[in-house]
Write a structure and sequence with these properties.
Blueprint (H helix, E strand, L loop, with lengths): L3 E4 L7 H14 L5 E4 L6 H9 L2 E4 L10 E4 L6 H9 L3 E4 L3 H15 L3 E5 L5 H8 L5 E4 L14 E5 L5 H12 L5 E3 L5 H14 L4 E5 L5 H10 L5 E4 L15 E6 L5 H12 L2
Parallel strand pairs: 1-12, 2-3, 2-4, 4-5, 6-7, 6-8, 8-9, 10-11, 10-12
Helix pairs in contact: 7-8
């Protein structure tokens, strides 16, 4: 059977991820170890490749030798961890996504102005943890709409949102909050590049029989893409071309390929090539 394959124009790395990976590769070319606390991006194959060139990934700042070279991942790190890095005299290369850094500045200013900060996002996501570390105790994290009625919302308050959070859930949470408050400042900090991917994905879903979402299984923006698309058209979430199964495409005539922000263009191309062989 011949399958028509359409690759989204937004597929591949986003600008923030591209900047981080290029920066890490340049540092690794100096043939010296480079440490990272947690994965620099949420893509297993990319991380394994970087490890081959000397990247050392650990889950404890204490495990990094004093004076070492240290990279800050795209999602950022908590203030307390950065303070420990300074105390250990690490040489720090900060590859935090610029859009996340803008939220840092925003919440710091708003807190100084007396706002209670409402962070919409996954409390276990490193981006949210980094943002909350800048605020102290005067903040609340919300992940689900049903969490809104369970507490009294201090006023005035300001809302920020995890850059890769599901926009549909964000809007539902937002609606429930503003109906209960009089002094709420809403700061839409969703990533514009992520939203563009979602818009193109929805368009592609209306024009194809099947969608292949390529990206890390731990990637928030990739999981959001998949959650949105699977409600429109049959879809599968894979990390690489090796996971494709021909039986899934037995009756498919036209398939769309989209990717998360941490997926390299080369892997998207491999997926498209494999599909064209089915």
């Amino acid at each position: 059977m011949d399958i028509e394959v359409v690759v989204a124009s937004t597929a591949g790395f986003c600008s923030g991820v591209r900047q981080a990976i290029q920066g890490a590769q340049e540092r690794l070319q100096e043939n010296r170890k480079l440490y990272c606390l947690g994965d620099i991006i949420h893509n297993h194959d990319v991380i394994e490749s970087l490890k081959g060139f000397g990247l050392v990934v650990t889950d404890r700042i204490e495990a990094i030798p004093d004076g070492s070279r240290f990279v800050v991942r795209t999602h950022g790190l908590q203030k307390e961890i950065l303070q420990k890095a300074a105390a250990k005299e690490l040489t720090v290369f900060d590859f935090t996504c610029p859009r996340v850094k803008k939220i840092y500045h925003l919440v710091t200013t708003l807190t100084e102005d007396g706002y209670h900060i409402l962070i919409i996002g996954n409390p276990n996501h490193p981006e949210v943890q980094a943002i909350s570390s800048l605020i102290g105790t005067d903040h609340t994290i919300l992940q689900r709409p049903e969490e809104v009625p369970s507490f009294t919302i201090p006023e005035p308050n300001a809302i920020v949102v995890q850059t890769t959070f599901n926009p549909d859930i964000f809007l539902e949470i937002l609606k429930r909050i503003v109906l209960r408050t009089k002094k709420t400042l809403v700061c839409n900090t969703l990533c514009g590049e992520t939203l563009k991917r979602q818009q193109e994905a929805r368009k592609l879903a209306g024009e194809t029989d099947f969608i292949v979402v390529v990206g890390g299984k731990q990637s928030s923006n990739t999981k959001t893409l998949f959650a949105q698309i699977r409600n429109i058209v049959p879809a599968v979430h894979i990390e690489n071309a090796r996971e494709l199964q021909k039986d899934c495409f037995r009756h498919v005539k036209k398939v769309g390929v989209i990717s998360g922000a941490s997926t390299p263009a080369q892997e998207v191309a491999r997926v498209a090539d494999r599909l064209s062989e089915f």
